[in-house]
């Protein structure tokens, strides 16, 4: 039972099981957290980190592991999420310019994004699980998947050929 | 940005490029500028000033990663300004020089046989603990010069060093997955027949082991059906020959085994659709969600009033969402978020309150309506009455008990906590 500054009425409620006049005396709680931090690493065990403000995937040892970037995740719909880093202040987006499709980090707050806004669609990724791993397809760029290169320290990017052996599109994606 | 980066790079590596096309886009223009500054462009027309003397060199800071290696093995330090895959396009125009921070002398020194520079990288073979320190790479071309430092720490090859030098890798319980021997590219480059030996706790993993499969020609070890016992320290090693001498290059991996959290379809089990309340009183309506074995972490739970967020609808905070609670009963997971009225007013009787729950599998909603409780209720009369009776009974009981069993103070404690 929580501490309560109106014990009398609490006792009354308790004794008589009066469900309709339940009293809560705890101070108003903080807003429920809609954002969750997830660890992400690819099937080749590469984790994400920033190099010159660019998201790259590679291997971190010893005290370097504190550089690891975790993904901040806000669910949008079943199997669809917004993805960000740095406490949801930088969000992953699929941007098309000309015939080029690329992954971009944008300085927007993940909790300000809305699934109803068309311009926020580029931040939406569709999750699909296979066994223990997850793939991330861009909702704004259908057929384009979040990927890493086989080599370490290369940028995290998007590929439209997920079956190709040169790109890794399967990630372990687990809550902190 | 990266695609642009690579595209532009590939183009620059070629002989011809339309500059006007590149200039059309700002990011690309910025990249050109970057390349000019870096002096790595293959087509830059070099200005004749900037002699590039060491004192004019711009120091661009310390590389964000530290190299942790063990003594007796070869170590390769890469110049952080130049990514290895860019080296071939950069090398015709740029010279790289290395020096150690604590000495002005260049490395390798004249008498030095353990260190040399190859393809811009500093090789140390074999590394000694006293090689630990900060190394500065100076990249210079006709127009520009810049420096960055890299930190190297060479550890004794003992078990005590493992936590400082290991690469953590994670696999999921009861699935199969790979460990990867990292940062070996300098030693396995151009070698299709790379032979990596894998060890667990210093014991060589047998080729015919059903549990572990050393995937030929790759740096990967497949672990079948990962169990908790598979967690721990692994090492992988390749051999490297230099001037007739055989060296071991090893990397250490700490395998952690995680249990994957499963999601289930959440079920809202309370509130009841109609909640009775007296106007002017406080009211808490808990929205309680059953998840079974599913994870609480990915499940969102929130309230709305007439399709408006609670914090927007009641900016004064008369109605507010309480703290989210996550708990388990009999190994089943629940989440609860209360809606708190302080106090209930008539307007609330006509408001459509809704509790929403969402995770990646499902989205559900439940209506809750507040109804005014009858002004006279037996409950309200009985409540103070029963309390008075209870207290009286308690006092009498206490009194009698204290008389009979003096010194048994715990009975009072029991009475206090018993309710």
From TrEMBL, chain B:
Membrane topology listed for this record:
Single-pass type I membrane protein
Q: Which GO terms describe its molecular function?
A: interleukin-1 binding; interleukin-1 receptor activity; interleukin-1, type II, blocking receptor activity
Q: Where in the cell is it found?
A: Cell membrane; Membrane; Secreted
Domain Ig-like, first and last residues per copy: 51-153, 163-254, 266-377
InterPro entries, per the entry: Ig-like_dom (IPR007110), Ig-like_dom_sf (IPR036179), Ig-like_fold (IPR013783), Ig_I-set (IPR013098), Ig_sub (IPR003599), Ig_sub2 (IPR003598), IL-1_rcpt_fam (IPR015621), IL-1_rcpt_I/II-typ (IPR004074)
Name its GO BP terms in alphabetical order.
Answer: cell surface receptor signaling pathway; negative regulation of cytokine production involved in inflammatory response; negative regulation of interleukin-1 alpha production; negative regulation of interleukin-1-mediated signaling pathway; negative regulation of protein processing; protein processing
PROSITE patterns with a match to the protein in the record: IG_LIKE
Q: Which GO terms describe its cellular component?
A: cell surface; cytoplasm; extracellular region; plasma membrane
Q: Which UniProt keywords apply?
A: Cell membrane, Disulfide bond, Glycoprotein, Immunoglobulin domain, Membrane, Receptor, Repeat, Secreted, Signal, Transmembrane, Transmembrane helix
Which family does the entry's similarity section mention? Belongs to the interleukin-1 receptor family.
Q: What does this protein do?
A: Non-signaling receptor for IL1A, IL1B and IL1RN. Reduces IL1B activities. Serves as a decoy receptor by competitive binding to IL1B and preventing its binding to IL1R1. Also modulates cellular response through non-signaling association with IL1RAP after binding to IL1B. IL1R2 (membrane and secreted forms) preferentially binds IL1B and poorly IL1A and IL1RN. The secreted IL1R2 recruits secreted IL1RAP with high affinity; this complex formation may be the dominant mechanism for neutralization of IL1B by secreted/soluble receptors.
UniProt-recorded name of the protein: Interleukin-1 receptor type 2
Tell me what organism the protein belongs to.
Canis lupus familiaris (Dog)
